Amino acid sequence: MILVFILLGIIAFILLLAFIILSSTLKIEIKDLNLSNMKNKKANYAIKISLNVFKNVKWLWVSLNSKKVEKIISKIPEIDIKKIESDFKLEDIKVLGKLHTKISKFKLNADIGLENPILTAFLVTFLCSSISIAIPLINAKSYMKNSSPSKRLNKFYNSKKSNKFHNSRKLNEKNYEYSIKPIYNNQNLYKIELNCIIELKMVHIINVIYILIKKGKSDKNERTASNRKPYAYSHE
Asked: Which one of 34, 81, 130, 151 is most buried, counting C-beta atoms within 10 A?
């Protein structure tokens, strides 16, 4: 009888843990990221990764600084870039869209310069345009997935109408602002300060992992079938 209660307790614990994981949100916070090649100093930043339920209740978390990240990277084995390029397909980008990533905070200050002033102006304009389009679009997809479409679409389009494009732009909320300034010094220079929070729901992450694993197995089976000779198993 005791064994039955223990078994039921284990099953209940596993089900509860599965429910918590599936209902959790992975929150990645990049805090005070400073990158620069102007003063020959190492990058300094902090990364906080947590799993939250009910939006703000943390039940699992880890904090990393620049030194810890460097140690982790140094222990990672070398990655075969050619293999990744051969396995990676354009369809995989569409699968990553199923993550429904939400950027809940984005504050960027950057000074960028290239040896060519024309390329510098083009790069700054391109980055500003990309950010101004990407952040509202990414968040709009997340809103439409997790709430009523009409409410989220209205918020998205109102934020687009109420903001005009320029190098230093503030989006609909105080948590979204950036400033990208050109450096016309005929040198390759950069200085970047970033604070960012990215949120992904665990159910979406698990779904994407399942799709990629399933796709990888099917691709492997197709390659195996294509490598077989037409008459390999025939007997004359």
From this structure: 34
Summarize pLDDT for 6-64 with one digit per residue, the tens: 999 999 999 999 999 999 999 999 998 888 888 766 677 889 999 999 878 898 999 98
Flag whether 113 is in a domain. yes
Q: How far is CA 101 from the centre of its chain?
A: 7
* Total number of domains in the chain: 1
Please give the Cα distance from 195 to 179 (Å, whole number): 13
14-26 residues labelled b (16+ CB within 10 A) or e (exposed)? eeeeeeebeebbb
Q: Which residues contact 174 (CB under 8 A, 6 or more apart)?
A: none
List of residues 6+ apart from 208 with CB closer than 8 A: 95, 96, 98, 99
Cβ contact 188:36 at 8 Å: no
Query: Which residues lie across from 113 on neighbouring strands?
Result: 189
Q: Is residue 103 part of a domain?
A: yes
Which residue type sits at 56? N
Q: Within 13 A of 115's CA, how many CA atoms are on the CB side?
A: 0
Within 13 Å, how many C-alpha atoms sit on residue 96's CB side? 7
Could you tell me if residue 125 is inside a domain?
yes
Give residue 180's domain range.
Answer: 27-38+93-220
- Rounded to a whole number of angstroms, the distance between the first and last alpha carbons of the chain is 65
Rounded to two decimals, the pTM is 0.73
